[in-house]
Amino acid sequence: MAPGTEEQAHDAPERRFAWLRAASDRVPTRWFAGIGTVLVLVVTAGFGGLAAVEAPGPGEIEAGDEYRNDQYALTVERAVLIDELSDAGISLEEGQRVLALVVEAENLWSEPLRATLGGGLLDAVTIDGLPRGTSVARVDDATYAPWMQPGVPLEVVITWAVDAEEFADGDRLTVVLNDQSLYTASFVSAGSSWTDPVPAVTLAVAIEDVGAGADTEEADDATAADATAPADDTEGAAG
Amino acid sequence: MTGRARSARWLLALAGCGLVALAWVVMAVTPSDDATEAPFVVVSQLGERAEGRNIAVTVDRVVAAETLRDQGWEADGDWVVVELDIESVRSESGVLFSWASLQLGDRRYQASERPPNTIFGLPLSTGLARAGAIAFELPEGTLDEARVDGPAEAVLSFAVDREIRLDSLIELTVDLGTLESEATVELAPEAWGDS
């Protein structure tokens, strides 16, 4: 009597879960890989499938908007085309003119930075389709290749020597503002520097042809006095 | 027997602790990597001649200005003008006044190259001091803030090379809050002074 009940007690759980085993035996486990793959494909198809995704490109801002990164605060104010601008330290060959960007810049780093050295403004502000700029000069006192003290904003012209026929009044330029990374040297070399410019934002700006070099001074003065109102327009309105 | 063994164990533990403490002391007094190439700082006082390896500087006056004028050139801003005598000591060939710096907090400002008669960057002579002025352009509001908020210690430093590691660096600490101040300062003309 006693052994029989014991046996029943042993069998009971096995019998209770027998149906589970029977059911799991019927599950086609070798289809699992296939079902999983299809599931992944179906789900990813909802997000654009396996098509190559474009890396997020540089954002866009407008001329006059300020762009800030760890190194600089930059505002591209306008672009001018001038016959010559020797004050800014740029010399031209026959048939060339000066393309100049007027930029308000502030060094946000803790050390002084020179506008024309590596990590300077020539690397931070570039124009799509043109090589690195030629020179940088202050607008107010024409200091060539100025040093930028931390936290002291300054207005500069960044210049390119371009073929006279290449650009005309009203053409739109794509200006690229680049982020640079702070590299701290170790081992053999020492010091910190900004390197490796990567496009961060672009902005479109229309070129304004200010004609001969003689007008340059006026254009620059007008810029210093009122960056938003070009000299020609003000005169036109007055007359 | 057991007593001696126990005391030996205590001794070992004590020695172990002592070694840990010693290791901590060694770690604490070990100079940083930078220290092996740090400049040799010569601390200077206003009006006092300070001499380093190849540089001797006497700072005569430090003055704050809202407008800095230098012949035809003029600029508004927060200027700190430093009038000084500077000469080289050992050699003068290729020796320039290449380092003039004002450290305020974690920011370092370099003497401005804008005023035409600044002596920053000029060649130095041995035994014949160059007398003149340099000026630092600080962010707008720095001087006012220093006057209102109390002590703002700025460290001026001078050297004959932009590479200051392992060379003499003349330092002078000034308080921007209590600095003599003028609305307009005319940059002192450069001259050859007494050594």
In short:
The complex is a heterodimer of chains A (239) and B (195). With 239 residues, chain A is of the alpha+beta class. Chain A has helices spanning 2-26, 32-45, 121-124, 214-225, 231-238, and strands at residues 59-62, 66-68, 72-82, 96-107, 113-114, 125-127, 135-138, 147-148, 154-163, 172-184, 192-211.
List keywords for this structure.
heterodimer, A: 239 residues, alpha+beta, nine-stranded mixed sheet, two-stranded antiparallel ribbon, 5 helices, 11 strands, elongated, disordered C terminus, B: 195 residues, five-stranded mixed sheet, 18% helix, 41% strand
Description:
The complex is a heterodimer of chains A (239) and B (195). Chain A has helices spanning 2-26, 32-45, 121-124, 214-225, 231-238, and strands at 59-62, 66-68, 72-82, 96-107, 113-114, 125-127, 135-138, 147-148, 154-163, 172-184, 192-211. Chain A has 239 residues and is of the alpha+beta class. Chain A has one domain (5-216). The model of chain A is unreliable at 215-239 (pLDDT under 50). Chain B has helices at residues 2-29, 142-149; strands at residues 40-43, 49-51, 56-70, 73-87, 99-104, 107-110, 130-138, 153-159, 168-175, 180-186, 191-192. In chain B, strand 8 and strand 9 (168-175) form a beta hairpin. Chain B is elongated, with a radius of gyration of 24 Å. Chains A and B meet through loops of A and strand 4, strand 6 and strand 7 of B.
Strand-helix topology:
The complex is a heterodimer of chains A (239) and B (195).
Chain A: H1 2-26, H2 32-45, E1 59-62, E2 66-68, E3 72-82, E4 96-107, E5 113-114, H3 121-124, E6 125-127, E7 135-138, E8 147-148, E9 154-163, E10 172-184, E11 192-211, H4 214-225, H5 231-238
Parallel strand pairs in A: 1-11, 3-11
Antiparallel strand pairs in A: 2-3, 3-4, 4-9, 5-8, 6-10, 7-9, 10-11
Chain B: H1 2-29, E1 40-43, E2 49-51, E3 56-70, E4 73-87, E5 99-104, E6 107-110, E7 130-138, H2 142-149, E8 153-159, E9 168-175, E10 180-186, E11 191-192
Parallel strand pairs in B: 1-9, 3-10
Antiparallel strand pairs in B: 2-3, 3-4, 4-7, 5-6, 5-8, 7-11, 8-9
